[in-house]
């Protein structure tokens, strides 16, 4: 047994406890800024703490909005020195393009994009994302519309495309090339 008394939090336990205390504070600040808290990670870096906050929203998040969320979180943390009195570095970002699709809002946000999906049975497919709800997503795979429940998906990621999607695929998903171009322009401005 170590010199630490049984039941006392070790470094990891203390970090987990601090994260649990900070999460409602950070979540409230992120929501006040109009976003959802995707992830909160608290690490020690010497005498400082590094707080990594990832935000998301149904419409995506641009750089100016990340800055707004960062200010909101910093103000909330500074107001709660009783929870975080140590020096800290705050890093706020949005979900990256390479982040896995794990929640219904991730799927809704990636509508009309290609996604590589590994199913629970081990098979893989690549399909264009259609409508998504709280239970599953519609994918256009090889010209065929398929409804896939989230419980059947082991892992999914957005596939990067360098060309406009074929008009026939967009039409099959009830979209137009102009709508997709408008969505792409919004994404690129973020």
TrEMBL record:
CDD domains: YlxS_C. SUPFAM superfamilies: YhbC-like, N-terminal domain. Keywords: Cytoplasm, Ribosome biogenesis. Pfam families: DUF150_C, RimP_N. Residues 101-162 form the Ribosome maturation factor RimP C-terminal domain. Residues 25-98 form the Ribosome maturation factor RimP N-terminal domain. Gene3D superfamilies: RimP-like superfamily, N-terminal. It is found in: Cytoplasm. InterPro entries: Ribosome_maturation_RimP, RimP_C, RimP_N, RimP_N_sf. Belongs to the RimP family. Required for maturation of 30S ribosomal subunits. HAMAP family: RimP (MF_01077). PANTHER family: RIBOSOME MATURATION FACTOR RIMP. This is Ribosome maturation factor RimP.
